Each structure stands twice: as C-alpha cells, then as structure tokens.
Structures
1.
Amino acid sequence: MTEFAAARFTVPKHLRGMVASDAKPQGVAVMKRDDSALEVMGLTKCFDRLAVDNLDLTIHAGEFYALVGPNGAGKTTTLRMVAGLLRPDAGSVSIFGIDALQNPVAAKQVMAWVSDEPMIYDKLTPLEYLEFVAGLWGIAPSASEPVATELLNSLGLELHRHERCEGFSKGMRQKVALAGALVHDPRLIILDEPLTGLDAVSARHVKGLLSERVRAGCTVIMTTHILEVAERMADRIGVIAAGRLVAEGTLTELRQQNGHADTSLEDLFIALVTLQEAA
C-alpha cells in the first residue's frame, strides 16, 4: 500500500460531501497564510554527507512545479521530508498553512505521495486496492467505487480493473499507485519520478491525469529526469544541485537569468549544475 496510510485519519470535509472550509481545524497549528500550497524554509538533512542544505522553496496553489537535478542532488530526500516520510534535521514545512512537522496527520489529509517504486498489494485488483485505500480514509464503498472507476478509466486501466495486480507491468503498477494516492481528492500531489520506466502510452495517461488535476485547482510538485516533461508541463522549474536550489523560475525566466533567450532547458540545466559543482 502507500507509505502514508496505516492509521485512521479524520476525514476532510470535502470528502464528506461538504465544501472545504478555510477555517483552522481544532488543534492544528497554522503557519503564515498566503496563496502558497507548500512553503519550505531552511530544510536541512544530513546522512553520511549533507543531502539537503538549508533549502527554501515556495510553491503556489494551483501550480505545476518540476524539481530537476542530477542523481544525488537531494530531490527525493526533499520530497520525502515534505511528505512526512523523513524527519529533517532543521527547517520547517508548511502545507496550505499547516505546520507539517507539528501536525503530520493534518498535513497528510490534504496531500498525496507517489514514489518511483510503486507499493501495492499484488493479490488485490486495482478496483479492490482503490476501495481499500479509500476505506482507510473513511470513505464509504458507495462513494469510493465511482471515484475509483473514474480514476482507473482516466489512466487506461478500465479493462484491467478486475485483474490481480501481481502480473502487472511497472507502468501499470505505477498507474494503480497513482490512482490510489488520488482517491481521497488531495490538494497537493507529490510525485517522485512518476514517469520512470513507463512506456509512451502509460506516460501519456499519467501526464493527462496530472494536467487535469492542475486545471481543477490541485497543486503538483514532481521530480523528473525527463527535462522535456518539465519544459512542457511545469509552470515553474527548480534546479537543485548539491542539496541547494541553484535556480528557479519559468523557462523564460531561467533563460533570462542566464542571458540566453533561446537556450534549451537541457543546456541551462547542464550549465547550472556544472557551475554549482565547480563552486
């Protein structure tokens, strides 16, 4: 299953057929209020070396944000700390104004996490898996079945929804994991290399669903090695190297910052990373 849902959570209002309120939930610490979906300040994590170095990052509500960087740059570590799967050594994480370090359950209620290695129950069918995850969120089967069916259809799994997942390819498993992460209608979707190992058809299904979610008002932050995807899908792109955010902006802004109006993202990426590694 997901790395998230081992406990019963209080169901968000919008999952009970009500309009979500902007009011602060009882007992939930709220940080600075603005239009940010995610605000990271001074985030730091050290293993045998410094993996994330005093990172500041703000992602606006309704934005598609791509985080790119070389292997070992700190992308996955950053997202795991944001998702509450790894405790930072220093810094703060605010998700829609909720202090995610002080109130991890409240923060998880409004987010979804999908890793590059899908973790699902092989003996369940996709429909059973989604209904199981929905049950952990307290969503009744009568409400979850149509949502699950719609998600599976959007990802091209309608003909496989009653087949056990044990024989599925990497791409099919990734799509089931994504559908399971979205079944509770999260406002922030956190994705670590979601397109790795996917064929062209599966990748198109995933990109299509994510684009639909952003158009509906969701916020997406995604790491990717596929620079073309970042260039075509993201509203803004962050370049991370050696645990630091070395550049950020729209593609046009990144070009302007580096003085080359027609430079490709690949060339910008290589130049920025090389400069950081030489520093």
2.
Amino acid sequence: MVFRLMRKFDCRLLPQIRTLSALLNDLAKIRQFGIVLEVFDEIVKAGIRPDIFIYTVVIRSFCESKDFVRACEMIHQMESNVAELNVVVYNVLIHGLCKNHGVWEAVEVKNGLVKRGLRADIITYNTLVLGLCRVEQFDVAVELMDEMIKLGFVPSEAVVTSLVEGLRRKGKVEDVLSLVKKVGEIGLAPNLFVYNALINSLCKNGKFDEAELLYNEMESKGLHANDVTFSILIDSFCRRGEMDIALSFLSKMREAGIKVTVYPYNSLISGYCKLGNLCLAESFFNEMINNRLQPTVITYTSLLSGYCNEGKLHKAFRLYHEMTGKAIAPNTYTYTALISGLCRANMMVEAVRLFGQMVERNIMPNEVTYNVLIEGYCKDGNMVKAFELFGEMVDKGLVPDTYTYRSLISGLCSVGRVSEAKEFLDGLHRDHRKLNEMCYSALLHGYCKEGKIEDALRACHEMVARGIDMDLVCYGILIDGTLKQHDTRRLLVLLKEMDDQGLSPDNVIYTSMIDANSKVGNLREAFGLWDIMIGEGCIPNVVTYTALINGLCKAGFIDKAELLCKEMLVSNLLPNQITYGCFIDRLAEEGNMDKAVELHNAIVKGVLANTVTYNIHIRGFCKLGRLEEAMELLVGMADNGILPDCITYSTIIYEHCRRGSLHEAIRLWDSMLNKGIMPDTLAYNFLIHGCCVAGELNKAFELCDDMFRRGVKPSKVTHDILARGNHSKNSYENVDQ
C-alpha cells in the first residue's frame, strides 16, 4: 500500500530493491501470491530493475498459481536482465513443475542448467527424485539417484524412503536392496520405516533368508526393531508353518519391552489353525483376551476357519455368533470359511442359506466363495445347481479358475457323465481358458473309474499336445486304473514312460502298487515294492502300512501284521480306523470276537473308532449269532457320538429276519428311517424277504412301493423274492449274495 501511494504521488524517494525483495518474500510466506504479482507489475512500471531474489519470488508465485507459461517467460526475462544467475530460481521452477505433474519438463529444466553455466545441487536432485516417484517413474529416479551419489551428494532420508517404498510396491526388491547398499556406502542408514517396508516385501516375495539378514543388519546399525518389525517377521514364520521360530521372535519382542499387539496374535492363531493345532490357537486367543486385546475379524475368521477344517462346525458357529454379538462384522472370508465347512459336512441346504444371508448383508462373495459352493454341489452330485452357480459367477464378472473347472469336471465324472466332462473340458480349451494338470487329472480319474483306460490315455496325449505336462498325479491315476485291470504290460509301459521323463514314483504310486498286490495275496511282490520304495527314499505313510497289514491279515498272518503295526508306531505313525479295521475284520472272520472286542475298546478309547469299524464288529457278532452283543454295539455307537449308516442297520435287520424276529426287524427299520438314513436295495431285499418268509406279503409289496417312491431301484433279486413269496423259507443265502 505504501509503495502504491509513493507511486501515486510521484514520490522521488522509492524503496530500495532490498526492501522490495523483503516485502515480496513476506507476502509469499503468507501465500498472498496474487498481491506479489501485482506489486511486481508496479515495480516494473516504476522502472525499477528486479534482482534475482525478486525474480525467484515472482516465479514461485506463478508456479503456485499453476501459470507455468508465465513462469517460464519470467525465467527468460530474468536471464536477459540479471547478470549473475543461480540454481535457486531454477529449483523453484523445478519444484513447481514436479508438484503439478510436470516432472518431464522439470527434468528438461535441470538438463538445461549446464548451458547456463550452472550445476544442479542437492535440492535439484532431491526434488526431481521425489517428483519422479510421485508419478511412479522409478527407473529414471534410480538413474538420478545414482548420478547424485556420484557427484558426492547425500540424498535426504525422505527421498530414500520414497524411492524405496515405490520400488518395493512395484515388486523390485532387488533394486531396493541395491539402493540400500549404495546409500549405506555413503554413510546414510535408511530409517526404521524403510527397513520394515523392505523386510515386509522380502517376506511377501518368499525371500525369507534375505529378510532375516536385513533384520540382523538393521540391528547391527543400531536400529532397534519395533512392534511393526516383529509383527512382520512373526507373520512370515507363521505363514511358513515355522511356529517355533515365530515363538522365539515373540519372546524377543517381549524381552525388548515391546507390547505385543493384536497383529502377532492373529498371525500365531492363523498359523496354528492351518497346522490343525487348534489347542494352541485357542490358547493364544485366550491369552489375547486376558491381555485386554480386542480380537478383530481376522482373529475370529482364522479360528473359525480352523474349526471348519477340522469338522467342528458347532464351535465355528459359536464363535461366529460371539463375534457378531460383539458388533464385529464378518467379511467375505468369514462367510467363505463357514460355507466351506458346511459343504465339506455335506450340509448344502445350510451352506446355501448362509450364502443368501451373506448377499442380503451386501457382503459380496468372491471366486473362492463360489468355488467352495460349486465343489459342494459337485460332491453332492447336484450338477444342475453346480452349473447354475458357475453361470451366476460368470454373470457377476468373477473369473472362474482351474479350481472351478476341476470341481465341475470331477463332479460330472462322479455321476457317470464322463463324456460330458470331456466335452466341457474341450469347450474350455476352445475358449482359450487356462487349464492345468489338475483339470485333466479329474477327467483321467473319471475314465479310470469306469475302466476306460484307452480313453484316459487318449486324453493324456491331447493334454500333452495342448502344452500341459503329465505330472505324478496323472501318472498315479493311470497306474491305479491299470492295476485295477491287472494289466501288467501297460503298467510297465507307464513306469518306463515316467522314467524317460525324469519322474520317479512317489508314495502314492508305490502305495497303489503295494495295495493292488496285497489285495490279490501277492505278498512277495508287495514286500519287494516296499523295499524298492524305501531304497528310493520314499517314506511309507499310514496308507502304505495299512495296505500291507490288510494283505497280511487276509492271508492269515495276523502276527506279522501286528509286528508291522508296531514298526509303524516306532516311525511315529498312528494307525487309523482302517488299519484297526483290518485286524477286527480278520478276528471276526476267525470268530475270535473276544480279542476283537478288546481291540475295539482300545480304538474307542483312542477316539479312532468310526462307522466302518463298528460295522465290521457288528457283522462279526451277527455271523456268530451273538445278536445281543451286536445290538449293544449299535447303542454304544450313539453314546460315542458315531452315527450308524445303512450297512449298520441292514446287517442287524438281516439277522433278525433270519431268526424270524420280523417285528424287531421292522422296529429297527423305522428307527433307521426316523434318523434320516436312506435304505439301499440290499436293505430293502433283506426286509422284503423277511416279510415273505413270515407270510406278510402285503407288507412286502408295501416295501416295494416304498422303494419306487424313494427312487431306489429294485434288483433282479427283489423281483425273485416277490415272485417266490413265502414258498422258500431257507433262501437267505441267496438274498445275502
């Protein structure tokens, strides 16, 4: 205002250039850039020649006003009027351009400094590197960083951090490591944020050894890990299942006096759940609560996912209700875990209901959600619903993957529609969908299950022609199918083909061959394969041991089977229900039910008994005419939380009918139906025959009608029984066959 009055009254005493420069600087500090430009115009009109400092403020004002055309014009005017230029004014222009996405123009300004007899300084380089990082031009930023280091400039911590973070986000971890090494050589240690970000990237890229080395380097430079560092490292070990090392870092964290946050707890709970160690997962969950830490949706989802994987759905849903009761909103992963658990338990109605709730609450299902539901329907044999969901998934813009395709191919094969599965796979290939060996292995399994080895081999040739290599799983399926057809010649051809491709049989293939030989009583060959397997470094598993034990038991070598079982225990392998079933089956066949009962009780105590072992035992008692003990076992199943199946009931119903206890047989039949257990053709045949023998022909025909209503197909034996009526009272053997 004073300056304008002096101009208005034609005052001959004008302010000094230094005063005007200070005035403009003060105006710029309070961001009055418009007034700066107005005063500058007055200065020029007054015939005052601006100096470099005034030009610097004016150029900054134009940059802040985003008028870069005028800013550049002012640069040219300054170059004509000022004798001694400096780099500061150019840095102002470079900063303005970088701030407003004109980074390439800024680089041109920097490159033009040499012509003007000027050199870029540390501020020039720092500004440009930050600007390049802002527009994600990291390669050029690295070049400029190298250039400035060669010139002896030490980049600022902010510049290093920005470049490291940018390269890290782009996955250029090697470039980051190289950069950290370079700045370290000039005495600049990256800060804790940089180290944490870099350690995190290395862990995510699977470079765990490098991450640990960087952690050690960080400590050696006097930078102490914080809660973020420890959280990253603990999470990386938990993801790899290296829980002991994760716990050692948790101890280090506590020793350093750092408060354990929710993040390490989440990692530990997730890690133990994935390993199936729910006891320790629950322990950390409770410890977290005791430490007054609030579980997050990730905490709950990890734990309930673990419960679902172990089939403990009641615990999973209890946890789900607990989290929603605490106003912790479930997310897509939470619902997907629960839906997956329900599908695995064959509870499709409940799974679909939960899927509907999820959508109603605007929680959008992802590819995995659809995949688990599609797989559930496929395993249930409901291919109509599976393909409906597949179509819905595509309509919603979700991309099916090899997991989706494999489930659908496998589902079609499981319901006997192998030719449709092949057509579906060929259609996917024509549409250029990505397929892998898993998709083809599902088709191969379908062909082999139906004994169509030639079709399976043709599919293999197509698979290889389409650029997908045969793997051990594919060969394993072909070998298993060949073994079931007792085709030794083809088996040898497949084994040679594997060897030519540098593939060696694995546990699964050796076990298939051992099992096939054991089942036909060829124990010499089975044990020969066992020796080769061990010699090749393949470690037998429970299935391998059980295959040999089964062969020995069937051949009557129960003592040798027991020795093999003891060897199994020495190898830290626990026998399963099938292993024990081999012994019980043999003991029942021999009529040695006392020893069978003793073994069965041991199984129950070890929580290894299942429906199959009970059925073997019940059949043994019925065969010996000890029906009362068979009935006791049926009651004991419920007490031990094991559900009987159709075989359980039909075995006892058969024995009651054979004894003429039709009333008791019908009572058991009704009990079976009330429990929702679907009778099969054999079960109907037993009871229909019992009714005919007892002269209850009306009841027999009622049962036949019931068969049709339930969609159970009568066999030739069913028709024969009804045709004979009550004329053949001693024909139970034919019914059994």
3.
Amino acid sequence: MGHINLIYDLDGTARRERPIFEFHGLFIPSYTLKLAALYLNIPNNKIRANLGTAIYLGSLNIPTTKDTEILVSFKGPTGAFKKYSFFDVINDKVPADVFKNKLVLVSPSAAGIMNPLSTPTDSTMPVGEFSANTVWSILNNNLIRQPQWGHSAQLIIMFLLGIVITFIMPRLKAMFAGMTFIILLILLVGGSSYLFITKGMWVSTTYPVMQLLLGYIGAISLSFFTVETKKEKVEGESAESNRMLGLSFQSQGMLDMAYDKFRKIPVDNEVKDILYNLALDYERKRQLNKAAMVYEYIEKHDKKFKDVTKKKTRLMQASETMVFGNGFAGGDSSSDDLLSTASDTRPTLGRYEIIKQLGKGAMGIVYLGQDPRINRTTAIKTFKFGDEFDPEDIQDLKAKFFREAESAGTLSHPNIVTIYDAGDEHDLAYIAMEYLEGEDLEKHVKKANLLPMVRIIDYAADIANALDYAHEKGIVHRDIKPANIMLLDSGIVKITDFGIARITAISQTQTGIVKGTPYYMSPEQFSGQKVDGRSDIFSLGTMFFQLLTGELPFTGENPAALMNNIMNTPHPNPKSINPKIVTPIVTIINKALEKNRENRYQRASQMSAHLKEVRKKIDAAIAKNKLKA
C-alpha cells in the first residue's frame, strides 16, 4: 500500500513526486517507492529516510530535494513502456511469458476516467505511465538531483551579476556590453544545461537569467538616455566649433572638409549664407556638381533663399553637358577654358584668382591671375592630363610634373622667368609664374620685323648665359624657340617655360602625340638620345639664325623631311640670306649648329662669351667709324 498524491509545479507540469508522505507522525511511502522496494525485495524495515537529503532502499541511495521530493527522469514520451490491454490479458490473448520477471503496473488509461498529466516529455501522459517513469528512474538510479548548494549558488550568481550590471556594463561601449551580455547568458544557460545533461543535476538559473536580461535592458536604456543627453549638450556646444572649423577649412581651400563640418550645424539664416559662399567657392574651383549639391542642400531647408534654385538648375545642366577635350594641357578643347564655365563667379586655381585669358596653345592656356594673399599679379599656365591616360599613368605624370616644376622653381636668374608655385586642382595642373609685360620674339622672326643685329647679339648672349646657369644646375630647357623668349618693355629678354618642355615630352612619350613645331629640335632629340645642355645650344643657334635672317635654317615638306634635313643636311650660310651678318657671327652659328654635339659648343657660356666678344668688336668698329667721320 502507498499514496499516489501528485505534485504540480507552478506551470502545471508534473516533474516530481514525494516518495514519503507524513500523516500525523506516520510516514507513508508512495505507491511507486513501494513498487520499487517490492521489486528489489526490500522489506519495509529496510526503507530508511534522511529527510531533505536521501531515501535508502537497502543499499540503493535515492537523492531527494530539501523538501524530500524526487525529480523524475523520464525515459521518453508516452509509449516508452510496453502496454497491454487488461481485457486481452484476462482473455489469454497475451502470453504470460511477457510478464515474467517484470514489474507490472495496472492503471486505467481510457479517456475520461483519469485526467492525463502534463510532463516535460508529453503534454497528455497517462498517470500510469508517469508512475512507470518514476519507478524506472528509482530502479535505474537515474533521478535528477537538485544539489543542496544550488540555492546558494543562485544567490551568489545573482550578486555577481548585480555588480556587473551596476558597475561594469554602464561603462562599456554598446558593442562590448552586448558581447558581455551574450557571454554571460551562454554561461548561465549553457552551464545549467551541461549539469542537467551530463551530471543529472538541476541547478535553476531562471532568476539569474531574468536578472541579466532585465539588467542589460536597463543598463542599455540608461546608457542611451545618458548618451543622448550628453549628445544634445555636446551638439549644442560643438555647433560653434564646427562652424569655426568649417570656415577654417574653407579658407584653406579644403572645401569638402568644410562642407562636412557645415552639415553638422543646425541650418539657420547665418548658416545658409555660409553654405552659399561655400557653393560659390566650389564654382570658382570649377567643381560645378559639388556647387549644385550645396545649393540643393540649402534648397531643402529654404527654397526661397536667394537664387539657389536657379543656380542649382543651371549648374546641374552645365555639369552634365560639360565635355573636356582630349590631350595633355587642354589646348584642344574650348571647355578647358576656366572662364567658359556656366558659373558667374570668378574661378580660382589654388589660391589664385583667374582674371582673364592671356594666351592659348598646344601647351595649354595661360591666364592672368591674382594672388590675394600678397596682392601679386601672376601668369598661370594650366595643364590637363586627358582621358587617354590610365589612372596610374596620371599619378606618375603628376609626380614628374611637380618634380620638374620644383627644379625649375629653383632657378633665379635675371633672364629666366621666375616660377612661384605649382599645384593641381580637380582635373588641372598649373604653374604660377612671374607676369611679364612685353611680347615674345615670334613677330621678330619675319623679315619685315627683324631687330637690329646688335640687339639680337645681345639677346642671344643673355639667353646663352641664362642657359649656362640652368645647365650648371642640371636643368635642360628642351624647347628654346622665339615663342619661349619674352622681350620685356624694359628691353630685357627672359626665357619662359623652363621644365615645361620636359613635362610635355613625358606626356608625348605616353600618348605618342608630338605637339608644337619641331623646327628647333636638335638631332639628338629626333634620334631619341638622352639630351643635355648642348641640345639647347643647337636650338639657340637655330633661333639665332632665324632672328638674323628671317628664315629657318632647316625646313621640310613634312616632319620626316624636316627631321632628315636637321640630322643630315648642312644649314645654308646665313650671310647668303642677310649679307649684313658679320663673318664671326656666321662662325658662331656654324659651331652652334654642328650635327655632332661633340663638335658643338660644350657650354652655353662659351657661346655667350664669343657673342659678347663680337659685340665689343662691332662697338669698337662703330666708334672708330664715328671718329673718322
């Protein structure tokens, strides 16, 4: 005889059974405990209990909870044990051998007689099958244990979690706080599951998990509101800082960084004015699409602010239809003209304001510019690396461009144009140089406009002297011709475009296109040899010949014929074209135009000295004739 009282957990699930029931000091074993004792042949006097710890069936130790309950370990869902109909058994339809040496439970299972139980393995388990699972757990010593230290461990865990949630989590960044939460959750759930599966121990972590979840949500919420409060405060304090930083970036030409700062400021009328000025700066830089972007940003906040809608529409149309010409230096397309854009603001390159166009040629476009920092007028020559270059080639060309410009910028000579600055912006590279009031020697190579011989000699001597200075510094011009010699209003001659010819030569090597005229090129330039200062001497001799005679020493019907004449055909005697040329000058020209550079002047200073010596003799002869007169 035994009791069959059932125990339900708070969720209505049957997981445990009380093996001993106390009634007025009398301890009554449960029905399942009594069955297990009978199966093991354990008499009643051998059933002992240590309340709150264990029950002993002879030598079999059955662990209990502190409330003297056993936690059932289920073999499986309903049907884990063999079942036979009692009707079939009493009618001999089931062989008696199937029950031999077996523990047999007789229990009603028909629907409506006894309500089924909800268990962890089945929501509708018959009472008899629950009892079978209990007996099976006892006999196999497979009961789930709830250790005595489980409650204490739970309290300690909750205490430690409280410390983590209160003092550590709020100090962590969101990502690390989330990682900490996940790790702790895995430890709690995983540790409890590990003990349950491998050790048969049930250590409840429900409250610690709830504490962790609620604590994490609370910590994150508190952190969020704290951060938002601080953010609002910082945003209020940083608006002025962003405005000042943006204005500083704008003044340094770093417009993209300035725009990034201005976008962080609440847009009021003052900020609209600042953004409007930024858009104008983008227009000056010819970055029309970015200017339109800023106007559009202003328009989103105030469509009626000044003329932003009109400007945005015009600039977007202009940026969509703008087509840049091919080639280096941009001389092949009218769209390369900085003054031809749709913008109505004066464009800039770097810190230089572009005032007007001074000239245009194969090398590029030359502008009159103004340096607002020191109020200095400059000439600005632009270059464009066209679409025919690969991005890697463009970077390489730009690096070489700045090296050549830097080398040319080191030259300081009264007969060489001074280079102030070099830079690149958007799709253009540029060189800012000394602005000269005068004209080049192009018009003086025509017979109707030839200069006096003594002036030509003086100019050639000065040019040769300047070339020698540059050659001493390891810089070769490579493109000496009348167009690159400026005759100032003061009567001084200056060589322009030092280093630029080298840059163009690099570009032509990349594209296979030769720009400009080759009439002044030396034989070694045509043959592709490495050039030195003697190449400039040959070019100077060619120009000297032309300035004295009004004709070129070498011509040809086509480039191939011209190249052949320069490399193989002797030049004509300049005296046969202009009889006024004195014989020493003919000698100087002949030496400068030697095909073999080893026979040429080895230094430009030698040619300059000979020219000055001839000039002295001419002056002496003129003075002597005046005395005779």
4.
Amino acid sequence: MIMKKQSMVGLFFSMFLRATVIILAIVIVVFGVVFISKVMKKDDGKSKTPATTSSPNVLTEAEGHDSLLYADPSDTTEYITASDTQEEVVEPIMSYDAKILVLNSTDEIGLAGKWCETLGGFGYNNTSASDYYTPQEYTRVISTSPDIGQDLVQYFNGASYEVGTVTTGSSESTDGYDIVIIIGIADGGM
C-alpha cells in the first residue's frame, strides 16, 4: 500500500474539518439535552385537563343571574346581590397630581426639601419646598378643596387637616398651590 504524502496545508484543513464536525456534534447533543430538560420542567406534572368536582357544597352561578351564587337549587333562601345593597363605598381621592407646597416651621435646615423627597417616594411628585416663619408643634395639611389632601395626613405624626389657605408666614406665595403642608417640630429630625 502506497501512501500519498499530504502537504502541511492539506493536513491542517483535514484536521480542522474533523475538529469542526466533532464540535458541532457535541453542541447538537448539548442543545438537545437542554431542550428536553426545559420541556420536562414546563410540564411540571400538571394535567392539561381542568379539575372538576362532584361535591354538592360547591357554589355555582345561578342561571340568568351573574352575581347570584347558590349551593342547592331547591333552596328557597332569598339571596342579596351586589346591586341590592344601598351602602355606597367612598374611596378617598389621592392627591398625587396636586400641586403641593411644603413649608418648614422648624429650625432644622432643609427639612421641607427632605419631606418633598419623601413624599416623592410615595408618588407625590409635584412638590416645592420653602420656609414658614411661625413655629408649629404639629404638622398641618391645608387644602384649598375638601376633596384632596386628606391622604397626606397619614405620613406625619399627629398632623391635622383643614380646608383653607395660608396667607401669611410663608417665604413663598402660596397662590397656585392645591395643598400647603406646614411641617411641625414633631416631624423634624429626618
């Protein structure tokens, strides 16, 4: 048997081709294993059919009454639907969009600005900071409308809520603001 001598370039490409085929085979096997394991994990042992029950205690919707539930069709009990109730639930109006002026009535420098940042963290982003010249023991939340501002009282210690305007004592005009918050000593020390 006579062997043909290969050149160095031919030998290199021959080995390169074999190595490429082996690497591709390994990659295909790895991807196949990963794919199969993903498919098996997604199944998670859950059945594709919905769960059913034959228990007589299960509540079901009554025919023709979307909001009426019953347990036994022969039951003669009168049921009250959501539309039959007279009580009206009043949701508090949040003041997120209100223009708010925060006034510092304490000796602590920058307190109003810190409260603006804190309120911004709760979603009240339209805030400005200034000073108030008459010291206050507790924070006052003053709104121009009875519909807004009550939600802000919860963030302060012993704060009061009132409807009105602040005309004096501020280093900035309160005109154009929906809510003015005068920070009291009880809410200092941030």
